Amino acid sequence: MEYLIILLIFPFFFSAFWALAVFIVSRMGWSHMAKQFKVERSFDGTKIGIVSAWVNLGNYRSSIILKYNEKGMHLEPIIVFRIFHPALFIPWKEIKEVRAKNILFMQYSELIVGDPMIGRIRLKSSTFNQLKFAYDQVKATTS
To answer: Which of 18, 122, 133, 134 has an alpha carbon 20 to 30 Å from 143's alpha carbon atom?
Structure first.
């Protein structure tokens, strides 16, 4: 009988713990970016796939669906992180600087968003290189 009660209660405790953990991670940076870049509509663009990214202090390892088009890039968490994490659309014009970073022999591209800075998005350089053509096209026309 005790095992049955535990089996019935466990999903509720696990769900509450998961929601708390996802809430804390969202407050490490995603929610700050969402204040300005939150989108609720669908996005038409080229899908890169599920990637790893740092959004400010929040680490999203293999959990961000990344798409882009000529106007900007779209970041959406996989379904298990969507609570407290609305989709973001970052226009290319809002990316003020791209910095090369090397951390433990890995190469990253750190995107500085906003002026004054609203946040940072760090992607593996190989991931950013897939976006680079669209980003460079917009920067060339605005410079």
So the answer is: 122
Q: Cα Rg for the chain, rounded, in angstroms?
A: 18
Per-residue pLDDT of 110-140, as tens digits, reads 999 998 999 999 999 999 999 888 888 777 7
Structural domain total, the chain = 1
The secondary element (H helix, E strand) that includes residue 120 is: strand 119-124
Model pTM greater than 0.90?
Answer: no
Give just the sign of the alpha carbon dihedral 129, 107, 118, 83: positive
E strand or H helix that includes residue 62: strand 58-68
CATH number (domain holding residue 108): 2.30.29.30
Place 142 in a pLDDT band, splitting at 50, 70 and 90: low
